[in-house]
Amino acid sequence: MVRRALQGLPGIIGGTPLIELKQIAPEFRSRVLVKMERFNPGGSIKDRTALSMLLGAIEAGELDPERSVVIESSSGNLGVGLAQICRYFGLRFICVIDAKTTSRNLELLRAYRAEVELVTEPDADSGEYLPARLRRVRELVAATPHAYWPNQYANPNNPRAHQQTMREIHLALDGRIDYLFASVGTFGTMRGCAEYIREHRLNTRIIGVDAIGSVIFDQPPAPRLLPGHGASIRPPLTDTSLVDEVIHVSDLDSVVGCRKLVQREAILAGGSSGAVTAAFLGYRDRIPDGSNCVLIYPDGGDRYLDTIYHDGWVLEKFGDISGLWQETAHQPAPVAG
Ligand SMILES: Cc1ncc(COP(=O)(O)O)c(C=O)c1O
């Protein structure tokens, strides 16, 4: 078979691997499949969102590749995804970040030649950075000629990107997905996947995974340690009727989920993947034998080396929790060949 060359960097966004986990729950009599979004070129599921929002805006004539300036608030994966796509299209990009942005993400943004605007003070009323960042975005948009604000929290091209994520899963599994576990932040991934499931009349139970302290499903706000999933403002894209059940996961359980994944599957995953794993492990006794369960892993663990995978950080935040993820009973995988 002759493989055609892909069209530049956007050509390698999506089409991420779906792999089966055999060791995370060895007694489980169903299949556990995980969609590994870290294999996008910018390292996360947000590459899909960034590409979809920018292409959608170019097609709609809202963004002029010759002179527009893209301005967005993100301290994490979307910022990196947008920085990458803006560089590809030769667009100027101003990323509004806050003091919680990791030095690694800052370095990545700068490496892609994004301009960085730092918000140093959280919102006075809520104590959260997100409202303060959004305020700064609005000021910059008003002051910058030809500014374009993708607004990931309300842009329909955000969920549209994830209809494709779900389509890839659908095709890989020949249509049989009994359970889907996905985390929520902007609600883009969940909304796109759930809309695809509805449109194609798939018989899939949709489990949303949110952080304790996030307000998306009307829970009381509380401080959260891990970036990625959860939100301090309910995103306009939210439609909770698309979700059959929601599971709230603590920072501690998310970290334990991540550590178990490394221990049992050698998968270094991000915090929301740990949360999704913890939710699945807590739920699995309710799943009938022979089911296909799909978990979406939005990013990899290399952006969390100084938190989730740093023993000192974990000890400081949670105490000695090694007993929660280390186990003597774990059997290593047989070596083939
Ligand atoms: C690591 C990670 N997990 C989960 C999410 C939530 O995805 P969504 O915004 O599509 O709801 C995000 C969003 O930024 C993320 O970066």
Structure description:
The structure is a single chain. The chain contains 10 helices and 10 strands. The chain has 2 domains: 193 residues, Rossmann fold; 104 residues, Rossmann fold (3-Layer(aba) Sandwich). The two termini are 27 Å apart. The longest helix has 16 residues. Pyridoxal-5'-phosphate (PLP) binds next to helix 2 and helix 6.
Radius of gyration, CA atoms, in whole angstroms: 20 Å
What's the story with the biggest beta sheet?
6 strands, mixed
The counted number of beta strands is 10
Q: How many domains make up the 3D coordinates?
A: 2
Spatial arrangement of strands, main beta sheet: 1-2-10-7-8-9
Q: Please identify the top-level CATH class of the largest domain.
A: Alpha Beta
The span between the termini is: 27 Å
List keywords for this structure.
alpha/beta; Rossmann fold; 2 domains; six-stranded mixed sheet; 10 strands; 35% helix; globular
